[in-house]
Amino acid sequence: MVLKLYNTLGRKKQAFKPIKDKEVGMYTCGPTVYWFAHIGNMRTYIFGDILKRVLLYNGFKVKHVMNITDVGHLTSDAEEGEDKMIKALRREGKPITVEAVKEVAKFYTDAFVADLKRMNIILPDVICKATEHIHDMIEQIKRIEKNGYTYETGVGLIYDTSKFKNYAKLGNLNLEQLKAGARVEPDPGRRNPSDFALWLTNQPNQLMQWDSPWGRGFPGWHIECSAMSMKYLGESFDIHCGGEEHIPVHHTNEIAQSEAATGKKWVNYWLHARWLLFKGGKMAKSSGEILTVSELEKKGYSPMVYRYFTLTAHYRTQLDFTDENIEAAKNAHERLVNRIIGLRKENTSKGDVKEYKTKFLKFLNNDLDMPEALSLMWQMLKDETLGAKEKLELAYDFDKVFGLRLKEVHEEKAPESITKLVKEREEARKKKDFKKGDKLREEIRKLGWEVKDTEEGQRLSKKV
Asked: Is 327 found in the same domain as 204?
């Protein structure tokens, strides 16, 4: 069954065919490690994880590379303002030193990787840091300069986007509108509003700087992804993915500089996840309207509940984070956990799983249609023509893609004093004494446990 993916480059679904048979090179834009990742970021990383899992499910071998930006990402994509790493030092009251930058970068990198693990995201094969690949960036900039795509200003070495004929293609940009709406730039030597810095010089307040043919300075943000992806995946590779916000600037600039360096097509398939909406807008660190994984857990929603929540919408549609929607996901996830635990206690075997596996693969290969795949799992769990053994086999098989850790779910063992109250409540409900049942539920809650009524009976869980 052919895997079809929606390619932002061309804006249509295309049959996926890797450069090398059954081997896939995949690059994911990673974080700038100046603060904690928020759950909006996590939606994008879960999307990348689902993509990788679908490729693996289809029998492909995947080499996955992700960058860590620990220098050179200024507070504006137009190379304005201060480095985000220095911004972090000011926010946290740390000394403005190179060692402090390294300390902050390590802390937030470790926190990011920990969040990936909590979300059951398969870690990339290569996680590469910008500061460890400056030489690679300089060498690539040399190639771009040699091929005639650059000019110098008082800010540094600039990429001339007018020299690259397909510059507007990925973002479907109107360059005439960009010119008409051009603002006053801090770099008056820049020829076009879309031109961007490859190497910045004359920045005395920038802590981390390196010697280069263009003077002492530091790389522009965009060049790191081109240099590091090529180092580990080659000059042409299969898939580049990230959030939709990167399309018009970052990813557009990556293509321009990469293909200017090599003279050939860089990436064949571009996939982008849409935003997570929060309070009616995009969740963003710049606005302060964010929710981290840890904060989400404090509200009573586990990482697997959030992962389940992201599966309820297609990656190319915006997902609205509201109290009602996350609570609905929590309830659905709890029902799923209860069903898996219940099936393990049964010992029936009947029916054929082949049709369900075929349908599941069909949904996966239709541009990662997770809502349909999730709906199919619920349909399967309710199918009376299948036995418990077959249902568990399918659930575990589907979870290779969903990543909900279904094999790991288990009943929590409550103290005898709690289970006694649960039994009393069950007897009260059988007698339709709901007042007593509610009273017992509240007593159980005060003791640190929650009891919920499900299709499989009462479900007891430890309060988060």
From this structure: no
